[in-house]
Design a protein that fits this description.
single chain; 427 residues; alpha/beta; 5-stranded parallel beta sheet; 20% strand; globular
Amino acid sequence: MTVDLAGVGIGPFNLSLAALADGVPGLRVAMFERRKEFRWHPGLLIEGATIQVPFLADLVSLVDPTSELSFLNYLRERGRLFPFYFAEKFHMARAEYDDYCRWAGERLDSCHFGVEIESVSFGGGSFSLQPAEGEPVRARNVVLGVGTAPFVPESLRALAADPAVPVLHSADYLAEREKLLAAGEVVVVGSGQSGAEIFLDLLRNRAVPGGLRWVARTPSFAPMEYSKLGLEQFTPDYTRFFHALAEPVRDELVPAQWQLYKGIDADTIAAIHDELYRRSLDGWPDVELTPGVEVVAGAHDGRISLELHHKQQGTAAVWRADAVICATGYAETPLDTLLGPLADRIETDGRGRPVVERDFRLRLSGVDGSVYVQNAERHTHGVGAPDLGLAAWRAASIVNSVCGRAVYPLPSRTAFTRFGLSSTEEQ
């Protein structure tokens, strides 16, 4: 049997696609995930931490609010709809989002967990997905949702790779939390949301009252851009505008937008300041927060040594620590290994990255079928690529493209902002 669409990886994005494809007449879909069950950043499910988008950014609601796989229906089935109503929470807890997605995955026959796909090739008019065990899966189209991998700066990579050295990525925070709470000197590296949440958790709960430091390359511990017009850069309108820009313009634009996706939730910043202020009653707390700092080297001789450089000052220092947490984000998972058999058919841009069409298809040659990507297209579609708020819209776009018709009618306009000028109209 050949399916119409086979997916590699079941994170929120391919789960959204599976949910919206479910029940579409004549559409045969199969999604594969190497893990035994759905898990979403398990190392960062810190108590009280929330996702950074409203609950309507679930798997389906912004495209099909009537779906039985909506977050509200999840609450109803769990008997928690009225408590949610009275809680007046606009952002769901991370642990709750993780449980919601697992609930949805268990209801989709198209989702197959515990199956690792090792490669994707093309021949005989269809794609072939080769699992680690068993027979290949044939598909007319493929969607890759393999997610991202924890990124550790080069200066700390060797230390993080040594299991005997307490240098870890934030993705493993909860597994090591008890040791970190008891450690003497701890340094958190990275100024994003996960770094702030980890710093706050350590600040509140460490057995050692001081010895906690937080450094980041950004010039300040800055809030995430969360103004209503600013958020319109996470709309389909802006995605279409960004995709039409020239490659050099896109490459210059994304780093300049760091506060859209690397900033800190204002409530988290306030909670950190409140905790520091409470402790200041007995004098300045033995805690250090220093932005504008890059870790240029690291060593271990029983304790960890960090060589630091302050960009604005041009100064340097060496810090000693008993543990280091790299809250340094995630990098897109390379597709080279998975798509190795298709390497000579994939068109690339000036920097060797795959060219991704507006409807999220890789530009391929000599292939009668499509390979779609989810969260591997920031360089072509902008900062909204990893944003949960665009998940359902992108998934619906892929369903429409695979089916060749508007299974899900999508709005022609989604923002009050006009992001470009039309050269054909008089203003």
